[in-house]
Amino acid sequence: MEPPLPAALLLLPLLLVPLALLARRRRGRRTPPLRLLVVAGSGGHTTEILRLLSCLSESYSPRHYIFADSDKMSEAKIRSFEQKRAETFSNSQFTLHHIPRSREVRQSWTSSVVTTLYSILYSLPLTYKLKPDLILCNGPGTCVPVCISALLLGLLGIKRAIIVYVESICRVETLSLSGKILYYFSDYFIVQWPDLKEKYPKSVYLGRIV
Fold it and tell me: Of the candidates 22, 143, 189, 206, which lies 20 to 30 Å from 48 by C-alpha distance?
C-alpha cells in the first residue's frame, strides 16, 4: 500500500476553489473567512475528517460541526481537536450542532425512509441558519440529510454551498450508501482507491490522503 500523501498538498487546490469564487463575487472588498460546515460521524469517519481539517488555515472559519445526537464520541474528539488548534490559532472559532440520526445500524429500509425525512426536516432550518460556503463530509449517514438540505437552499436561491465529499479510506471497491447517493449531487467527489475511480468516472482520485 502506498503511503498517504499530505492531505494539505492534495486537497488544497480543491478547497481553494470556494475561496476564489467568494473573492470574485466580492472583488474590491476584503474577502471574509469561508464558513465551513463539517459533517462528522461515528466510527472512523470523525478521525478521518479531523485529519483533513488539520491542514486548513483560519481562512476556513468559523467551522460548524454537525453530528448525530447520539454520537458522544465524535463530540469529544472534535472538542479535543479544536482545543489543540486554538493553541496555534488564537481566534479559532467553531460551533457544535446535533441532528437526529438518519439511520441506525441494521435499521430496516422502510423505517430508514421515515427517520431520514425527519432528519432532513430538522437539518433544513439549521443549514439555513449556518449558511455555509463549503460542506465537507466523508460518508457518515448524517451527511445525507445535511447535504440535501443545502441543495434545497441552493435550489430556492437562498444560499449555494459547495459540497466536497471524500469517500472513506475503508471503501476500496464499492462506495458507501452515502457515497452512492451524494456521488450525483456533490461538486467534488474524492476517492482514495483507483478501482473506485474506474467505476465512478466523475470522481477525483488523489491516492491515499488520510
Answer: 22
8 Å CB contact between 78 and 40: yes
Which DSSP state fits 31? P
Cα angle 123, 127, 130; round to 5: 140
Average pLDDT of the segment spanning 33-46: 88
Q: How many residues does the chain have?
A: 210
Q: Tell me, what DSSP letter sits at residue 3? A: P
Give 4's DSSP letter: P
In terms of C-beta density within 10 A (0-12 exposed, 13-18 middle, 19 or more buried), how is residue 175 classed?
buried
Burial of 202 (0-12, 13-18, 19+ CB in 10 A): exposed
CA angle 133/138/139 to nearest 5° reads: 120
Q: Where are the beta strands (DSSP E) in the chain?
A: 34-39, 60-68, 94-99, 134-137, 162-166, 188-191, 204-205
> Which helix or strand (DSSP H or E) is residue 1 part of?
none
Beta strands in 7-161 (DSSP E): 34-39, 60-68, 94-99, 134-137
How is residue 123 annotated by DSSP? H
pLDDT digits (tens, 9 = 90+) for 64-122: 999 998 888 999 999 999 999 998 887 889 999 999 987 766 667 677 788 889 999 99
Task: Indicate the helix (H) or strand (E) that contains 150.
Answer: helix 143-155
Task: Dihedral sign for Cα 159, 147, 36, 103, please.
Answer: positive
